[in-house]
Specification:
With about 350 residues, the protein is of the alpha+beta class. It has 15 helices and twelve strands.
């Protein structure tokens, strides 16, 4: 049996509904929060963020896609400490994204596996967002935090503004035309509990040469923090009040308060007072524009962390088919692949 939850919404940030005019006091808020929690657990994005919801891991993946392979090179390019780097590389190898080439007499080289290479479209979606909304840094200090040049589709030789389209109908996919459908016969496995280090990400960055989270690009602070991403998910599914977010994400009051404050500072949420000192939180245009990033995280997690058979399927409402996202060259209308795309 297929159970649809929140039409127009699929797991992490995938659709936006108009917020209620007044606080919801009849229990619908709790039902919505439970639906959000179930979709988070059923989606490959939950497992992906459990692994990748770490800014250092995202920075290392960017460096790897730009050609870095050596331990010392990662330190030079990112400013990460040796201990933290060793830990993150070990995680990526254990998860199957990297392999370690230890040729006798030479320094070890780290190479992306097929699983790691398949992450290219997530980084492409992030590039597209940053090209339109910026990195959030006044002057990026690290090479991998600086915006890349224009993408060129080698098949047609033209600069391309990648377009996320439905592979079935060819239409542009937007945040308002999807629905998440959960197979009730396959109960999702709960996401692993948050660790103390995840609950206080500032500690993680004090372990390395970066002085503070303000040194990180906006997307690293959103997707490089598992709970920031979860709060964004809840907001895009309709959560508006502190209670909504608490019930949907099960984050403690202190960490949740910090996440809401940070997402406001990053321009992802804006607060509006109601009922005296209480606030409700609304999505900004920048937050809605993260939709393709989330779709790609879901796709990657479904393929590599759910074995291609996740409990939740995303349906494209315009054509009624299961959504398969494809990146299309805006110039020649052909599909983009990792091997046919370069950045100048």
């Amino acid at each position: 049996m297929i159970e649809s939850i929140n039409p127009g919404v699929a797991s992490l940030p995938v659709a936006v509904r108009a917020p209620p005019a007044a606080p919801d006091l009849d229990g619908a808020s709790t039902a919505r929060a439970l639906g959000t929690r179930r979709q988070l657990q059923a989606s490959g994005a939950a497992r992906a963020l459990d692994l990748l919801g770490d800014a250092w891991i995202l920075r290392l993946l960017r460096s790897l896609f730009r050609g870095e392979r050596r331990f010392s090179g990662f330190i030079q390019e990112t400013g990460i400490s040796r201990a933290v780097l060793a830990d993150r590389l070990e995680r990526l190898c254990a998860a199957g994204l990297l392999s370690r080439d230890e040729t006798p007499g030479r320094h070890a080289l780290y190479r992306l596996t097929d699983c790691g290479l398949d992450f290219w479209s997530v980084l492409l979606a992030m590039w597209q967002w940053e090209s339109r909304w910026g990195t959030g840094l006044v002057k990026p200090q690290m090479p991998h935090d600086r915006p890349r040049g224009e993408p060129v589709h080698t098949a047609c030789g033209q600069s391309s503004d990648p377009r996320p389209v439905c592979a079935c109908c060819g239409e542009l996919v937007t945040a308002f035309e999807t629905r998440g459908e959960i197979d009730a016969a396959r109960p999702p496995i709960p996401v692993a509990p948050v660790t103390a280090l995840q609950a206080n990400p500032e500690r993680r960055f004090r372990q390395s040469h970066s002085a503070s989270r303000e040194d990180l690009p906006t997307l690293m602070r959103v997707y490089g923090d598992r709970w920031n991403a979860s709060v964004m998910a809840a907001a895009l599914q309709g959560a508006r009040t502190f209670t909504d977010f608490s019930e949907a994400t099960e984050i403690g009051a202190g960490p949740l308060t910090r996440r809401l404050q940070e997402l406001q500072a990053l321009g992802m949420l804006r607060a509006r007072a109601y009922a005296g000192s209480r606030s409700e939180y609304r999505l900004t245009g920048a937050a809605v524009a993260t939709f393709p990033i989330t779709l790609e995280i879901i796709r990657w997690g479904d393929r590599w962390l759910w074995g291609g058979q996740p409990p939740m399927e995303i349906r494209h409402l315009r054509c009624g088919k299961a959504l398969r996202l494809r990146w299309q060259c805006a110039h020649c209308q052909q599909g983009l692949e990792r091997q046919t795309l370069r950045f100048d």
